[in-house]
Amino acid sequence: MIIVGVGVGPNMLTEEAIEAISNASEVYGSPRSLELASKYINGEGQKIKDYKNLHLLPKDAVVLSTGDPMFSGLGKFAGEGDKIIPGISSIQVACAKTGANMAGLAIITAHGRDPAPAKKEFLEQINLGKNIFLLPADTFGSTEVAEILKDKGIEASIYVCENFGYPEERIAQGTVNVPPVAKTSLHCVVVVF
Description:
Elements: E1 2-5, H1 15-23, E2 26-29, H2 31-37, E3 44-47, E4 62-65, E5 83-85, H3 90-98, E6 106-109, H4 116-127, E7 132-135, H5 142-151, E8 157-162, E9 170-175, E10 187-192
Parallel strand pairs: 1-4, 1-5, 2-3, 2-4, 6-7
Antiparallel strand pairs: 7-10, 8-9, 8-10
């Protein structure tokens, strides 16, 4: 199977991704990933019904992963001999839009999982003075991040970045005392010291 990152939003496909999608006879993905790649799908596009059985797909099947497959994406399902084509990730776009330097950036995800390990990692990384990129959970986002920073007496800029590439894209900047609040589920949080 070939796992292809389709980017974090519209118009963020790489040339390598477009070529793989265009040449595939079978393309699988979530409704959102199929929509992002729709103008390049020449074969049959199908919604993934069972992620645990992706390894049963034909060797030349293309599986679409939003953002980059190796960051909270479908790259974890790749087996030996499978190919992974990277995509433009929310990390890259968030850093470009907020001016946060990626060198030394701590990357944390709580997306779709228990947020406790992400909170622990967040505390460890702020104690090291690192800027943070966070894919939040419903119970661990910008408000909780601001509370942790406030309790530790740390000042920082907090950004909520939403819907990259879509007409409703939004980047809201706030502080520990007045954190920005996300309006949609398609968002990330960037903390810059």
